[in-house]
Amino acid sequence: MQKIRVMLVDDQELLREGLKTIIHTQHDMEVVAEAENGEKALASIAEAAPDVVLMDIQMPVMNGVKATTAIKKMHPQVTIVVLTTFNDDDFIIDALANGAAGYLLKDIHGPHLIRAIRDACQGQLLLPGPIAAKLAARVSEQIAPIPPFRQEGLSALNNRELEIGALLAQGLSNRQIAKSLFLTEGTVKNYISEIYSKLGTSNRTQVSLLLQQLKKD
């Protein structure tokens, strides 16, 4: 079985050690790299090749928002989950708007952390209701000035892509979508790639929220 490769990015060594201990109790995941700030994460991420990055927000040198933006630009396939000790909406929303798959509070219980890593790796968005609503408002503000893009992107989707897009907008993972539509995960990934291409972004969070907004319109 191929293990889920996890990278820990946090300036607190004690926290990294605690997370590593929890993750290494699982047979299907491993910590492959650590970094104490965003700059060091950027320098080592290509060699580490993680599937999931647990990213602190508040760090010296380069914070988690800037690091998330840079990593997603260079390595869009990497899933990033933001870690925070507080409910700082602005930082969290900035990270989500720039490609993070969700966020977790650092005091999360071990079993919940493990489940969240698996969900994120499967494409599940980790977005509690209040944060999701604020992020939707932020994305709506960003796309409001360019209605031609929204209409053209929607009309370019075929029926199957719209069907998959509707499930994507509900926050379903690739596996859940495949099971719901009796397709293989590979087929679903191909369709989602086409959706990304037609909507002009590879940010799963933004695509989900965009499709939700288009549906309302």
Structure characterization notes:
- The chain is α/β, with parallel strands linked by helices and 217 residues long.
- It folds into 2 domains: 4-126, Rossmann fold (3-Layer(aba) Sandwich); 136-216, Response regulator (Rossmann fold).
- Helix content is 58%, strand content 13%.
- It contains 11 helices and 5 strands.
- The chain has helices at 13-23, 38-48, 64-74, 89-97, 110-121, 129-143, 147-155, 159-169, 174-181, 185-199, 204-216, and strands at residues 4-9, 29-35, 52-56, 79-84, 102-105.
- The chain has a 5-stranded parallel sheet, with helices on both faces.
- Helix 1 (13-23) links the parallel strand 1 and strand 2 (29-35).
- Helix 2 runs parallel beside helix 3 and helix 8 (159-169) packs across helix 11 (204-216).
- The longest helix has 15 residues, at 129-143.
- It is globular.
- Residues 143-151 have low confidence and may be disordered.
Question: Would you summarize the structure shown here?
Answer:
With 217 residues, the chain is of the alpha/beta class. 58% of the residues lie in helices and 13% in strands.
Kindly estimate the percentage of residues that lie in beta strands according to DSSP: 5-15%
Please indicate the count of domains: 2
Measured as a percent range, the helix fraction is: 55-70%
CATH architecture of the largest domain, by name, is 3-Layer(aba) Sandwich
What structural category do the secondary elements indicate?
alpha/beta
**The CATH topology of the largest domain, please?**
Rossmann fold
- DSSP helix count? 11
